[in-house]
Amino acid sequence: MEEKYQRSLYPQLDDLDYGIVRALQDNARLPFTQIAKDLGVTEKTIRMRVQQMQDEGILSLVGIVNPVKAGLNVQAFVQLAVEANKLDDVVAKLQEIHEARLVVLTSGEYQLNIQVLVRSYEELSQFLMNKLNKIEGITRVNVINELKILKSKYKFVR
């Protein structure tokens, strides 16, 4: 049965790769022997494919922390308008700030979007006043508070 999975892995993943990814998304600790059994291939094939996808940066097996359960009860998206010649400097400063979980370059009025996770609205205020407002090159800020997460999905679907 393994012959049907012998197509080139890259640039596009084949059916076996997708099967492996789907299995590991549901349970990253699932034994390779179980995945192999479910997909009708050998454990060695699964092990090699997982290693290859990790080496290529396609797959990472990581633990996902629920921010609310970890005490980070306030989450906000912050849009930042930045002077064109200061963009690299602003990004470098944001990378040093632990409250900024995600920094994204975007098109439109705001060049950067960041996701901020903090314990309280007081902490959010302190972050905005004492850290973000002190970064040279930011010309405008728009804070969008997350009121309720309606969908959060990390699954890769084919």
Question: What features would you describe in this structure?
Answer:
It holds the Pfam family AsnC_trans_reg. Keywords: DNA-binding, Transcription, Transcription regulation. This is Lrp/AsnC family transcriptional regulator for asnA, asnC and gidA. The protein has 158 residues and is α+β, with helices and mostly antiparallel strands. The protein has two domains: 2-55, Arc Repressor Mutant, subunit A; 74-145, 2-Layer Sandwich (Alpha-Beta Plaits). The chain is built from five helices and four strands; from the N terminus they run αααβαββαβ. The chain has helices at residues 15-26, 32-39, 43-55, 87-95, 121-130, and strands at residues 74-82, 100-105, 112-118, 138-145. Strands 2-3-1-4 form a four-stranded antiparallel sheet. A hairpin with a 6-residue loop joins strand 2 (100-105) and strand 3 (112-118).
